[in-house]
Design a protein that fits this description.
The complex is a heterodimer. By secondary structure, chain A is α+β, with helices and mostly antiparallel strands. Chain A has four helices and five strands, in the order H-H-H-E-E-E-H-E-E. In chain A, strands 1, 2, 3, 4 and 5 form a five-stranded antiparallel β-sheet that branches. By secondary structure, chain B is an alpha+beta fold. Chain B is rod-shaped, with a radius of gyration of 52 Å. The chains are: A alpha+beta, B alpha+beta. The interface between A and B is large, with 67 and 57 residues. Strand 4 (144-156) of chain A pairs antiparallel with strand 1 (107-114) of chain B.
C-alpha cells in the first residue's frame, strides 16, 4: 500500500511544526518566567499587605492610647506649655490674701525635661486658711507650680505676713525626644 | 472552441486550508501575547503596590515611634505634675498640722519653715507650759530640738525654738 502526501500537506505540517517550536520557545523564554514573577509578586503583595495591616493595627492602637492620654491629661499638658503670666496669677489668687505681691520671674534651674523658673511672693493673710486655700488653688492653676521652702510666717498686728518661693515648671519641647519610660 | 474537458477553477494565492491554519495560528499567538501582557501588567501593578505598601509601612512605623515618644512625654509630665501636686498638698497638711500643734496658751510670733528645719518664735506663760504642750510633740517629729527662753517683764517668756530633721544617708 502506497501512502501519498500532497505537497500542500507537507507545507502545512512543516508550518505547524515551526509554529509549535515557536510556541514552546515563547512559553519557556517569556511566559513561564513571567508567570513565576507574577506569582512571587502576588505572594509578596499578600505578605506585605498583612505586615502593613499589622502595623496599621498597632498604629490605630497607639493613636487611640495617645488620644486618650491627651484627653485625660489635657490640663497638665496645657499647663506645661503655658507661659507664666504674673498679672493673671495675681488676679486669680489675690482673693485668698489681704495683699499679694510677686517678684519678677527668673530662670532657676533645669529639672530633667522641665525648665524651672522661680518667683518670690510675699503676702498678708488674716488666717492660715487663706494660705491653705491658695495651695489648693495652685494645684488647679494654668501652670505647674510648686510652693517651696523657705516659708516664713510672721505676725504683724492682726495679720500674718507670709513669704515663700514658687517654682514654675515649663516643658522644653526639644527635650521631648529624649524622654523615655 | 473548447480546449479542455474540465471547467476552469478559480485559483487563489492562499488555499482555504492555509487560511484556516493561519486563523488558528493567529488565535493561538493572540492568546499567548494576551497572557504575556496580562502577567507583565499584573506583575508591574503588584510591584507598584508593594512599593507603596512598604512606604506606607515605613511612614506608619515612624508615626508609631513618634507617638510612643509623645506618650512617654505625657506620662512623664503627668508623673511630674502629680509629684508637685502631692508636694503642695503635703506642704499644706504639714503647715496645717504645725499650727494645730500650737496650744492656745502659746502665741507664735513667727514661724520659719525650711526643708529640714523649723524655727518658731513666740511667747509662753511658763517654760513648763511650752515644754509639755509644744516641745514634747515637736521632739517626736524632729531629730534635734533646741529652745532658748527670754524672760519678759510681765513674767511670761519669749522663746526661740529651733528644730532639725537629720537627713537619712544610705
Amino acid at each position: 500500500m502506497k501512502f501519498r502526501i500532497s505537497r500542500q500537506m507537507v507545507y502545512i505540517l512543516s508550518l505547524a511544526v515551526v509554529f509549535l517550536i515557536l510556541v514552546f520557545v515563547f512559553a519557556f523564554a517569556f511566559l513561564i518566567p513571567n508567570g513565576k514573577a507574577y506569582r512571587m509578586a502576588r505572594l509578596d503583595t499578600k505578605k506585605i499587605s498583612y505586615q502593613v495591616d499589622m502595623i496599621q493595627n498597632e498604629y490605630d492602637k497607639v493613636y487611640e492610647e495617645l488620644k486618650t492620654l491627651q484627653t485625660d491629661n489635657r490640663h497638665v499638658v496645657t499647663a506645661y506649655k503655658s507661659i507664666f503670666n504674673p498679672t493673671r496669677f495675681k488676679k486669680m489668687y489675690e482673693p485668698h490674701f489681704k495683699s499679694f505681691t510677686l517678684s519678677e520671674l527668673r530662670t532657676h534651674s533645669q529639672d530633667g525635661e522641665f525648665a524651672v523658673y522661680e518667683v518670690n511672693t510675699s503676702s498678708l493673710i488674716e488666717s492660715p486658711q487663706g494660705f491653705y486655700d491658695f495651695l489648693d488653688g495652685v494645684n488647679k492653676s494654668d501652670n505647674i507650680i510648686g510652693v517651696n521652702f523657705p516659708i516664713n510666717f510672721k505676725r504683724e498686728a492682726n495679720l500674718i505676713k507670709s513669704s515663700f518661693t514658687m517654682h514654675v515648671y515649663i516643658a522644653s519641647q526639644d527635650k521631648k525626644a529624649s524622654s523615655k519610660e | 472552441m473548447q480546449y479542455s474537458f474540465i471547467k476552469p477553477r478559480a485559483k487563489h494565492l492562499v488555499s482555504p486550508e492555509f487560511k484556516l491554519l493561519f486563523f488558528f495560528f493567529s488565535i493561538t499567538l493572540g492568546m499567548l501575547f494576551a497572557s504575556y501582557s496580562f502577567l507583565k501588567i499584573k506583575t508591574l501593578v503588584y510591584e507598584v503596590t508593594i512599593e507603596q505598601k512598604i512606604e506606607k509601612g515605613e511612614t506608619l512605623k515612624e508615626s508609631i515611634a513618634s507617638m510612643h515618644e509623645e506618650i512617654a512625654f505625657i506620662k512623664l509630665q503627668r508623673r511630674h505634675a502629680e509629684g508637685i501636686y502631692t508636694e503642695n498638698t503635703v506642704l499644706k497638711e504639714s503647715i496645717h498640722n504645725l499650727f494645730d500643734l500650737v496650744p492656745e496658751k502659746i502665741t507664735l510670733s513667727q514661724a520659719l519653715l525650711k526643708e529640714d528645719e523649723l524655727v518658731l518664735y513666740g511667747i509662753t506663760p511658763s517654760k513648763e507650759v511650752y515644754e509639755f504642750l509644744l516641745q514634747a510633740p515637736l521632739r517626736s517629729i524632729f531629730h534635734r530640738s533646741y529652745t532658748s527662753y527670754y524672760a519678759m517683764p510681765n513674767g511670761w517668756y519669749s522663746f526661740v525654738s529651733k528644730n532639725y530633721l537629720d537627713r537619712q544617708t544610705q
